[in-house]
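Reviewers of the previous submission asked for a worked example of the structure-prediction workflow described in the proposal, so we include one complete record here. The input consisted solely of the amino acid sequence. No template or homolog information was supplied to the procedure at any stage.
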Amino acid sequence: MYWDPQKCGQYGNYRTMGWWRIKPYERILLAPNNQQFFYWYAESDDGYKWEGRYGPVYTYLYPFDSCLQIGSTGAWKTVTMRPFDQYAYPGGVNVDI
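From that input alone, the workflow returned the following structure tokens.
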């Protein structure tokens, strides 16, 4: 989730996207580089979850691109996300089990 008032101005200003299957040691870009903050949630195949206090964010069983305040009866579940400051911690999020 990241600030995108151009796409999501009517729906909370935050864009929400998911899901990606990331292999061990793989690096991917999930949010634009020009964003200082983004919010993230992850879960492992064995059920471990990296959750936070921001949201709730509606998620779906399939890849999605939506806005924070757009819900749907087709939503799979809601999650809460962790914040990340790319300026304070350049290089991205490391998710370790």
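Residues 2-85 form one domain. We consider this example representative of the routine output the project will generate in years two and three.
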